[in-house]
Amino acid sequence: MLLSELTWQDVDRLDRDTPVIIPVAALEQHGHHMPLFTDSLLLEAIVEMAHPSFNDKALLLPLTWLGNSHHHLDFPGTVSAEPRLWIDMLLGLVENFIKHGFRRIVVINGHGGNDVPGRQAIFEARQRHREREDLLLLFATYWHLAQPAQGFVAGLTQDEMGHACEWETSMILHLRPDLVKQHQNAETVSQNGSFQPAQRAWTMLDRSQTGHIGAPAEASARKGKELLDLFSGGVSDLIHRVIRWNGQSWEG
Questions:
Q1: pTM of the entire structure?
Q2: First-to-last CA distance in the chain?
Q3: How does pLDDT run across 55-70, given as a tens digit for each residue?
Q4: Angle at the Cα of 31 (from 28 to 32), degrees rounded to 5?
Q5: Percentages helix, strand, coil for the chain, rounded to the nearest 5?
Q6: Domain architecture of the chain: domains with CATH
């Protein structure tokens, strides 16, 4: 069910165990070859593909395109909320539906920079309602919801998501090839971390002058279709697990 198409009375008639799905993404630079709206285009497509499998069993909010993208602000066109502001915004969305009586709330994320503040928001929401044993509050980034992509998509060079990389470029090549500009000319930028296993703070310019990380020249529309199928299946599987949850157990 699409929240945007319902009346408040339609919503009021819903069972409060109906999962509420909140998609969040970003509007930020994606290198020389990809559009600023890449993360939002991809998440919208993935959720749209998954939606028929749970259409009448879950409530889907419109996508929130504003993300936490401060590490991209050296590149014009990037729009970013301050980290604490973004946490409070997401926390507010979750709190709205708790106030309306809903007990199962799932945030589906499409931007890596939202991952840490998103998990913080869902953590804070749980602490606010720590006496509630019936709440299920989840935050999930879509590319973490499926089996390793290299075992599903033939010919992948990368073994994990980058930025404006082989994976993202492939998916946009499938969805909107008109928006991809000469990705074949993009050099590979290493995805390796620095000082691992420590987590190093970084801006994009620390790692890439062009604004991409990974191997976009290896992208293809065929890989993109298969990745979209894989990730939409992962979203669908998660929502069905939420639907089946017994309302009490730790495991789902």
A1: 0.95
A2: 23
A3: 999 999 999 999 999 9
A4: 125
A5: 45, 10, 40
A6: 16-244 (3.40.50.10310)
